[in-house]
Specification:
It is built from six helices and 13 strands. The chain is of the alpha/beta class. It has a domain of 167 residues: Rossmann fold (3-Layer(aba) Sandwich), CATH 3.40.50.720. Strands 2-1-3-4-13-12-9-6-7 form a nine-stranded mixed sheet.
Length: 281
């Protein structure tokens, strides 16, 4: 028969082992969700549908809570609640810009929109966010630090337009980056390939898109068939804040694609420096 001290030691050892076995599960349950603000609305896209696809898809993939700031206004200058409010991101860990506001060209408003990102809040930017908040001449290369370059400085790439709605072959050019290392090249359905007017020094390119553009008419003129290529996924360092962007995401079918949702979720987690097994579901 074991002595009381040996019996106590054995029981204590079993209890400790059981506790250690439970701790990983308990720790997982106690992960503090990442508070995310998703901003949608404006021209040319079905944001009323896509905002829900994004919320459901991201929350299913990671310990993230997505709050929505949405307007049903479909103009190119939608009245968003973030305008004139530099504290709109208070309480959030990251902001997803998925609005389309090409004609919002007030530099003072844009500075308020950028204020959280200048003060440490990471950003994720999807599709038409790249063609929003255009101050001055957005078609010519802007000079960093000027009003015309405010939004592009934040994004890391300046884009001025896109081609036709055709298939885009996405190729991950940096396969060792935390965002892309588990992802594989894929071809979208019909999508818009955004051009690259210029790429800024702090930008890290993660993927390029290739599109064969068929012969078409534009503005009454015939545009010959051509092949086009542009950066479609990248990261940027903006005043120390991590910024992740992709120009992909025009149609509902693309936004609902598991490969797209995987990409956006991983980009979001990277932006808050929590791309790990603790936060991935």
């Amino acid at each position: 028969m074991k002595s009381p001290s040996r019996l106590y030691s054995a029981v204590t050892g079993l209890f400790t082992a059981a506790l250690l076995a439970v701790l990983p599960l308990q720790a997982q349950k106690e992960v503090k969700p990442i508070r995310t603000l998703l901003i949608t609305g404006g021209c040319c896209h079905s944001y009323a549908t896509q905002k829900n696809i994004l919320k459901k898809g991201i929350e299913a993939r990671a310990h993230v809570i997505v709050d929505q700031l949405h307007t049903d206004d479909t103009t190119s200058n939608p009245p968003l609640a973030i305008y004139r409010n530099p504290n709109y991101a208070r309480g959030y860990d990251v902001v997803i810009h998925d609005e389309c506001a090409a004609k919002m060209d007030d530099a003072s408003v844009l500075k308020d929109i950028l204020a959280p990102h200048q003060n440490g809040i990471p950003g994720v930017n999807l599709h038409c966010a790249m063609h929003s908040f255009r101050v001055g001449d957005h078609r010519s290369p802007t000079l960093a630090g000027t009003d015309a370059s405010l939004w592009f400085d934040y994004l890391g790439i300046q884009s001025s337009g896109h081609g036709p709605k055709e298939l885009i072959a996405i190729s991950f050019t940096d396969t060792k980056h935390p965002v892309t290392k588990t992802l594989e090249d894929w071809a979208t359905g019909n999508e818009e390939l955004y051009n690259n007017v210029q790429i800024f020094p702090r930008t890290e390119v993660l993927a390029t898109g290739f599109q064969h553009q068929k012969e078409r008419k534009r503005g009454g003129e015939l545009v010959p068939a051509q092949d086009a290529e542009a950066v479609v996924v990248w990261t940027n360092n903006y005043h120390g804040s991590r910024v992740f962007s992709t120009t992909i995401g025009h149609f509902d079918e693309t936004v609902a694609d598991d490969r797209y949702l995987d990409l956006v979720t991983r980009g979001l987690l990277w932006s808050v420096n929590k791309l790990n097994d603790q936060y991935l579901k």
